[in-house]
Amino acid sequence: MKADKHRVLIVDDDSLNVEIIQEILGENFIYMSASSGEDALAVASEFLPDLILLDIMMPGMDGYEVCRRIRSNSMLSLTKIILVSARQMLSDRLDGYRAGADDYVSKPFDAEELLAKIKVFLRLKSVEEVEKIKSDLLSVFSHETKTPLHAIIGFATLLKESEALGENEMEALEHIIKSGQDMLDLIDKTILLSFLRGGDSMLQESGIQLARLVGMAAERISYESGFHNVEVKSKVSDDIVIFADEELMVTALSCLFDNAIKYTSPGTEIIVSSAIDKDGGCRCVVESWGTPPSLRKIKSMFSEFIVEDVSHHGRGHGLGMSLAKQIIEMHGGSADISVDQKKKTTRFIVHIPAERIHGAF
Questions:
Q1: d(Cα 306, Cα 289) in Å, to the nearest integer?
Q2: Would you call 263 helix, strand, or coil by DSSP?
Q3: Are strands 231-235 and 269-276 parallel, antiparallel or unpaired?
Q4: Which residues contact 336 (CB under 8 A, 6 or more apart)?
Q5: What stretches of the chain show up as alpha helix (H) in DSSP?
Q6: Is the pTM of this model over 0.90?
């Protein structure tokens, strides 16, 4: 048997149906069969199939229960399940999807259609496996890198307090600390974005002044704004209170401010303003003056790991804007960008829906 062949488990109490499916699969797959739900669970735990063709009506444990138990097995979390049944009611299909099935095929089935579905879901599983490996590696790398980075930044900060160092040494230490903080910031954003993309995060919502969120976000990027001689100035009304996850929203705003710094001329300001729209929602605008991003950059602004020119790429990896957009959309809002090349202004616009605004305006 070839190691690269996909593994398929056929679960049906009718031996004729099993033989028909085996004939359809031919020699292109490795397959095993089980004639009951209990046998299916035992075989699946050892065989670790890529895909299961599962009958619903079987003596003892039915296909729905088998499906639910397979979905609770972490070793089979990516296994694809296609229910194959003579039941043709819509309610049967919905029950199958609720139990965790990926698809539903009615008997009698067309051999070509069944084989096509099998191939589609096996390709999907392969893609999901690659994505999981990438995510796991990224997570491990990120977490394992944070400890030495904290040590580098910490010891470099201690060395700065030494009176024996000259101007050149102090400048070198400043660059070490800045580079370490940039990398730590990238790692933190990567971990958070991966977590939020996982879909398991819950918003810890409370009512909070938008002006306070803006102030906290400005404080969070104060080192970066000071390094570039840029001031974040808030003109946000104290009357606007939004229901949001404070930590996540501060992160989103700080990402917007941090990105705005890149398009702000040294010695100027980033102005943050607010307004209540006609629909009762809130609009928060982050405006800066300097060289605006190009049209090409704008189109990919909210995509992670997108850089405008790899050969001349400097600070920034595109993660901050993607993270900001993810958080804002989790709150039911939207994020956009507009530029004026003549006036050399860049505006990041955040819209927060009316249902998250406290009070009437």
A1: 23
A2: coil
A3: parallel
A4: 348, 349, 351
A5: 15-25, 37-47, 63-71, 90-99, 111-160, 167-197, 210-220, 222-227, 246-261, 295-299, 319-330
A6: no
* Per-position pLDDT tens, the chain of length 361: 344 789 999 999 999 999 999 999 988 899 999 999 999 999 999 999 999 999 998 888 999 999 999 999 989 989 999 998 887 788 888 998 999 999 998 888 888 889 999 999 999 988 888 777 767 776 677 667 878 888 888 888 888 888 888 888 888 988 898 888 888 878 888 777 777 776 656 788 899 999 999 999 999 999 888 888 999 999 999 999 999 999 999 999 999 999 899 889 999 999 999 999 888 899 999 999 998 887 777 776 776 554 444 433 344 446 788 889 989 999 999 999 988 888 899 999 999 999 998 754 3
Task: State both tokens at 1.
Answer: 């048997």
- Sign of the alpha-carbon torsion through 46, 52, 58, 63: positive
C-alpha to C-alpha distance for 85 and 106, rounded to whole angstroms: 5
